[in-house]
Write a structure and sequence with these properties.
Blueprint lengths: L2 H11 L5 E5 L5 H9 L4 E4 L2 H10 L5 E4 L8 H4 L5 E5 L2 H13 L4 E7 L12 H9 L1 H4 L4 E8 L7 H19 L7 E3 L6 H6 L4 E4 L1 H4 L4
Parallel strand pairs: 1-2, 1-8, 2-3, 3-4, 4-5, 5-6, 6-7
The structure holds pyridoxal-5'-phosphate.
Length: 217
């Protein structure tokens, strides 16, 4: 199937409250344009340099989401245009995003990444660190960053019960903060392999790459 067909079949199966981020990392602009022409306007990239190049070359009504791990010294390259940063996982990074957002004269929306997987290699905060970040006075004084929800990645496994347990855990953390914080509206979880399950578990934003664009090298 073509990129457009993949996209439309996934899009038509998503519930109305779930937003699709088309994960286009490593893919050429011609592939992204095929998705764009089929109506897709939200793209996810995991390298700031690559995202900035695509942003420059492509139509300006695209919303660019940074879904990868962010290095503090590169925030400045995306601050002028990024529409959502998914993988924010430290106060230091929050401070840098706020600083660069001030320079760019805008407010940048971010999700805090929560560590839910068994693998140590995956990034993210635990519940305690999340609480202390959100309640810190340093964070509360920032005016140019807005935390609009949470993001997480389950363990890479075929064990559906385990994935479900991890995604449900993230949803419960999300709910416990959302009741006190009306800006918390986005729960980003689910990729090609687990997005249906993630939606059952309460996801409002899925990040899908290979099921749309095909495998990556
Ligand atoms: C690459 C990536 C995805 C998409 O993965 P697929 O399995 O190709 O759908 C989603 N989220 C993050 C954080 C990624 O790095």
């Amino acid at each position: 199937m073509s990129i457009a067909q993949n996209l439309l079949s996934i899009q038509s199966a998503l519930p109305a409250q779930v937003t699709l981020v088309a994960v286009s990392k490593t893919k050429p602009i011609s592939d992204l344009m095929e998705a764009y022409e089929a109506g897709q306007r939200i793209f996810g990239e995991n390298k700031i340099q690559e995202m900035a190049e695509k942003w420059e070359a492509m139509p300006k009504d695209i919303q660019w989401h940074m879904i990868g791990h962010v290095q503090t010294n590169k925030v400045k390259f995306m601050a002028p245009f990024v529409s959502l940063i998914h993988g924010v996982d430290s106060l230091k990074l929050v401070q840098e995003i706020n600083k660069q957002a001030v320079k760019a004269n805008r407010v940048i929306d971010c999700l805090l990444q929560i560590h839910i997987a068994e693998e140590e290699t995956k990034f993210g905060l635990d519940q305690q660190e999340l609480t202390s970040l959100l309640s810190s006075s340093a964070f509360q004084e920032m005016r140019n960053i807005r935390i609009v929800g949470l993001m997480g990645m389950a363990t890479f496994t075929d064990n559906k019960d385990q994935i479900k347990k991890e995604l449900t855990h993230l949803k419960s953390i999300f709910d416990s903060f959302a009741v006190r914080n009306p800006q918390f509206t986005i729960l980003s979880m689910g990729m090609s392999g687990d997005y249906q399950l993630a939606i059952e578990c309460g996801s409002t934003m899925v990040r899908i790459g290979s099921s749309i664009f095909g495998g990556r090298n």
